[in-house]
Design brief:
The complex is a heterodimer of chains A (about 260) and B (about 325).
Chain A: E1 5-14, E2 17-27, E3 32-36, H1 43-50, E4 58-63, E5 66-67, H2 73-79, E6 81-84, H3 96-106, H4 122-134, H5 150-162, E7 168-172, H6 180-197, E8 201-205, H7 209-215, E9 218-223, E10 226-231, H8 233-237, H9 240-246
Parallel strand pairs in A: 3-8, 3-9, 6-7, 7-8
Antiparallel strand pairs in A: 1-2, 1-4, 4-5, 9-10
Chain B: H1 2-19, H2 22-47, H3 56-72, H4 78-100, H5 105-125, H6 127-130, E1 136-137, H7 153-181, H8 183-193, H9 195-200, H10 205-231, E2 233-234, H11 241-254, H12 261-279, H13 283-297, H14 301-316
Helix pairs in contact in B: 1-7, 2-7, 2-10, 2-12, 3-4, 3-10, 4-10, 8-10, 11-12, 11-14, 12-13
The chains are: A alpha/beta (about 260), B mainly alpha (about 325).
């Protein structure tokens, strides 16, 4: 059984600059893999490669055993991987229900229906309500996205990625712009939602080491375009050398009972 | 509510020949033609967020289609003329769209403008084929197989042809209503609102834009064919960039944020222009001034203004 998402000796050069060099990584079903590293280490490049946005200069990127190098976002969604961005991406004039319906419909054979009213489609509506309920947005279905609070916009952005029913979801700093008091709540919500929605693995890019420590099953640290460490959280944070290189001085607060 | 208002408006338009002078009824005909063309134009502009500055190209294809088919090829059935002209328009729209929908905003606008001017030059310069600046005559077509040879031109225009066009507008508006409320329409708005997000939600942005572009070309040609039959002539002015500008003007006047905005815009524009032309030779100046005021004060156009007044009225009346 091959890994769900796989990078095999992947490199990416921009002119003379090697953004990534010989990175190999395999993500199995059931994992929540965090990608961490200082700014400029190559996290974004790695994520762009793993999601097929840009093709690697060398090596291979596979999803469910198939090469996805540079396939682009539309095909990525079709194959079963969703991505949510660090900055909030919404459709300002569409309501919450319409936003979720875009994702629900695009993955069905209904995307090219020209004469049926999408608002009257019972199957679409029930799926929309289901996803909205997971994220606590069921009371806002009729609200235009631009009128939501910043936190709700963030939730909607992530919820719409879930509405694709993906097997793998990539979250790029999902808690950025969220108050530190709400970060854990959001993260817990997302992880629970993923479990309920049948998402098989989550790839997380996150700066907040408390969150990384609490939710990851594995942490991949990138430095200067190479993998510095690829370990379970407990081992990761017990290595002072790695912690100093990636996190800086402050050791993270390990959750009680973490192994 | 909106549908009820639309039905009332439709009924009002249908009785106009009984209350208006034939001259004013012949003014309603271009308003009907532009309403159809602009419903298509607004699928592209209002819903998809792509502003074409060359849309008169498709109106001209409809007009010249009617001219060539009726006076050069002897085809009289208006249904066949509409189908063939609109088909030709879509056939032209697809290759242009394949290039143009890769771009947005000013780049899309300039590309469509360029194609419109290209077609205008063709009409103007290829005298033998197109009749140059005099254009080609459009012969009176038969409607649903009936020639109405006993009617003189004006009686035919304000009679059978008028009702035919009203019915056409009703049908095409209904089809467009279904389109914008369908999954397809929802995807168009999503691509307008946030292209990148739409792609990550699995929306094939360029493909959907291309379909919208083609549908708008279809509607444009239908409008153009009606215009040409009404004037009895297809000339290069139909494809000129100022005509494209008028299409934009009418849509902004009526309000592109509203489904019926383009229809409101078409009717207001035709009657406004008629009044201004009668009052002053500087009518273009006044049209320009009105547009500036509108954009500054009521960016949502006349339909947006009406909606706001309606909402205010409802708020002030206790229910």
């Amino acid at each position: 059984m091959s890994a769900l998402v796989e990078a095999i000796g992947v490199g990416k050069r921009y002119g003379d600059f090697a953004a990534l060099d010989g990175v190999s990584l395999a993500i199995e079903a059931g994992e929540l893999v965090s990608i961490v590293g200082p700014n400029g280490a190559g996290k974004t490049t790695l994520v762009n490669l793993l999601t097929g946005l840009v093709p690697p200069t060398s090596g291979q990127v596979r999803f469910k055993g198939e090469d996805i190098a540079g396939i682009g976002p539309v095909m990525l969604a079709k194959r079963g991987m969703a991505r949510a961005f660090q900055l909030v991406h919404i459709f300002p004039e569409l309501t919450v229900a319409q936003t979720l319906a875009v994702a629900v419909v695009s993955q069905s054979s209904k995307a090219l229906r020209f004469f049926t009213a999408v608002a009257d489609d019972a199957a679409v509506n029930s799926r929309v309500r289901e996803v909205a309920a997971i994220f606590g947005l069921e009371g806002k279905l009729g609200t235009p996205s631009r009128l939501l609070s910043q936190g709700e916009k963030k939730l909607l952005d992530i919820a719409s990625a879930f509405a694709l029913s993906p097997e793998v979801i990539l979250l790029d700093e999902p808690t950025s712009g969220v108050s530190s008091a709400d970060k854990h709540g959001l993260m817990k919500n997302v992880v629970d939602a993923a479990r309920r929605a049948g998402v098989r693995s989550i790839i997380l890019v996150e700066h907040d080491m408390d969150l990384v420590a609490e939710y990851s099953t594995r942490i991949v640290a990138i430095q200067a375009g190479r993998i510095l460490a690829d370990r379970a959280p407990a081992e990761f944070f017990s290595d002072p050398g790695i912690v100093a290189a990636i996190v800086g001085k402050r050791p993270p607060r390990m959750p009680p009972g973490a192994s | 509510m909106r549908i009820a208002a639309a039905l009332v408006a439709l009924a009002a338009v249908a009785v106009l020949p009984n209350v208006l002078s034939p001259y004013h009824v012949t003014l309603v005909l271009p308003a009907l033609a532009y309403s159809i063309a602009l419903l298509g134009f607004n699928l592209l502009f209002g819903y998809t967020g792509l502003l074409s500055f060359g849309h008169a190209l498709f109106v001209a294809i409809g007009g010249y289609g009617a001219a060539v088919l009726s006076s050069k090829l002897g085809l009289r059935s208006f249904e066949a003329i509409l189908a063939l002209s609109a088909g030709a328009s879509v056939a032209v729209a697809i290759p242009i769209g394949l290039l143009a929908v890769r771009y947005v905003k000013i780049f899309f606008g300039i590309l469509t403008l360029a194609f419109g001017m290209l077609f205008h030059s063709f009409l103007f310069k290829f005298y033998d084929l197109t009749g140059g600046d005099t254009g080609i005559r459009v012969l009176r077509p038969s409607l649903l197989g009936r020639a109405y040879e006993d009617l003189d031109k004006t009686t035919w225009l304000v009679g059978p042809f008028y009702y035919y066009c009203v019915a056409l507008l009703a049908i095409l508006a209904f089809v467009m209503w279904r389109l914008v409320h369908s999954p397809f329409g929802l995807h168009l708005v999503a691509t307008r609102e946030n292209r990148r997000k739409a792609e990550y939600l699995g929306v094939r942005v360029r493909f959907f834009r291309l379909i919208a572009f083609s549908i708008s070309a279809f509607y444009g040609a239908i409008g153009g064919a009606i215009l040409a039959v009404n004037t009895g002539q297809a000339d290069p002015e139909l494809a000129y960039w100022t005509h494209s500008g008028e299409l934009v003007f009418m849509t902004v006047l009526g309000g592109f944020g509203n489904f019926f905005g383009p229809v409101v815009g078409a009717f207001s524009f035709i009657f406004l222009k008629d009044q201004l032309v009668g009052l002053t030779q500087y009518w273009r100046f006044w049209l320009g001034a009105i547009l500036i005021l509108l954009v500054v004060l009521f960016p949502r156009g006349l339909s947006g203004l009406t909606e706001r007044m309606w909402a205010r009225l409802h708020r002030s009346t206790p229910s």
